[in-house]
Amino acid sequence: MDTLHAHLEALFDDLELVIGWETGYEPLRPTPAFLRSREDLSRLVWNPLCAPNLSVYLPGILKDAKETGKKIGVCLKGCDSRSLGALVQEGFVERERLYVVGLPCPGTVDPEALAEARKSSAPVTHVSFRDGLLAITSRDGTEEIELERVLARRCRRCRHPNPLHADVILGDPVPPRRTEPSFSDVDAVEAMSLEERRAYWEEELSRCLRCYACRNACPLCVCRDRCLAESRTPKWTTQRDGVRDKFLFHMIHALHLAGRCTECGECERVCPVGIPVALFKEKMARIALELWDYQAGTDPAATPPLQTFDPSETGI
Amino acid sequence: MSEKNERQLRIVGFLCNWCSYGGADTAGVCRFKQPPLLRIIRIPCTGRMDPLFVVKALAQGADGVLVSGCHPKDCHYAVGNFYARRRLELVKRFLPFVGLDPRRFHYTWVSASEGQRWQEVVTEFSAVIQELGPNPGIGADTPMETAGQAASAFA
């Protein structure tokens, strides 16, 4: 973390803004930070609790940024960097206007798993991370918890802990947990019968509040205020609160991410009612992999498969 | 299909204006007998097909969705159906994951002169749908769907 501060400190004059994480209302909840002055840099934090994918802000910030010739600095984990790759591929972000600080990521924490793993429930005053152990300090003393025990689902299947497309990588490379794409959670759903699957999703989606947090946190949901889910003409979803409209909203999100999703898992992380919505997108990513051997965001020069075609394709 | 709950089955057909709509017309002009399940929506090109059309129709209880356009390499707009077949294949593979029966969705290519082939496509797909029976859709009769039930839930 000291290297991160020192590195950005040295570069700060050439940067318009640095996007990173700072401590939120408690040390367990780092929130995105937009740092415009040198003094603010000390607020930056980096640990396995820094879950938000900061590439979600890039299209908007670059659109509104003044052309000062200065770059915008952004801290990205491995999965976040794939989202950046996909945004570059689709022309939503100009890579040359960014200074990307890549942070090899040991994995991020699932807050619910952490709450269960902690013995104390006292407010946390300090968090640190070393050698796979989270040290969590509260007035009851310091507890050490293994990161592996409280890892988020998305991180258990992570293949890209080390950022791609970065200008600089700070920290030692992390060995990936998976070397091959892993879809075991998708497999678990597919092991059910068709009827069971329908019942499973009806049950899960019945909790959906249609708060659209999954959409807002998604780095590739770039329509923002013009989302199909809120359009009145055509009226894809109604104001009724039945499962049918909730389902349609999730289908809009999933189908609009077909062949684009980088599997950062933000949609699932931000869901306030814990619906495994990332599974829809993991299934999409798997189809894209099977049909076109395509992995979004890994090659900034590649064209997303649904924005192109191949006349010689047969069988479909 | 049960005798009691005998609802007329419905297939939604999305046909491209230039080939399959003409093919369906040819079949009609030639008086080829077809099952009466299909309701046709004319689209300018299969490239107009949003995969959401398929998902929404099936989620809301359409018993089948049939998409048909020009044969690949014969698209009126040269490449519309090349884009379409990628999207349609993707949605076909996605449907079973969310609990929708992929057999209820079929996409194919029929040219304007293939009246006979159109008859075969409609007959075969209608037979599949007859076999499968009514589609329950997704989220039908959710307790909160109707105001009366919602009120009783809070009573």
Automatic annotation (TrEMBL), chain A:
Domain 4Fe-4S ferredoxin-type: 252-282
Name of the protein described by the UniProt record: 4Fe-4S dicluster domain-containing protein
GO molecular function, one term: oxidoreductase activity, acting on CH or CH2 groups, with an iron-sulfur protein as acceptor
Native source organism of the sequence: Desulfacinum infernum DSM 9756
InterPro entries the UniProt entry points to: 4Fe4S_Fe-S-bd, 4Fe4S_Fe_S_CS, FRHB/FDHB/HCAR-like, FrhB_FdhB_C, Helical_ferredxn
A Pfam family assignment: FrhB_FdhB_C
Keywords for the protein's UniProt record, in alphabetical order: Iron, Iron-sulfur, Metal-binding
PANTHER family found in the cross-reference section: 7-HYDROXYMETHYL CHLOROPHYLL A REDUCTASE, CHLOROPLASTIC (PTHR31332)
Automatic annotation (TrEMBL), chain B:
Domain called F420-non-reducing hydrogenase iron-sulfur subunit D: residue spans: 11-133
Coiled coil regions in record: none
Pfam family, one: FlpD
InterPro entries: MvhD/FlpD (IPR003813)
Keywords per UniProt: Iron, Iron-sulfur, Metal-binding, Oxidoreductase
Molecular function GO labels: iron-sulfur cluster binding; metal ion binding; oxidoreductase activity
Domain of life, source organism: Bacteria
Protein name: Coenzyme F420-reducing hydrogenase, delta subunit
Organism: Desulfacinum infernum DSM 9756
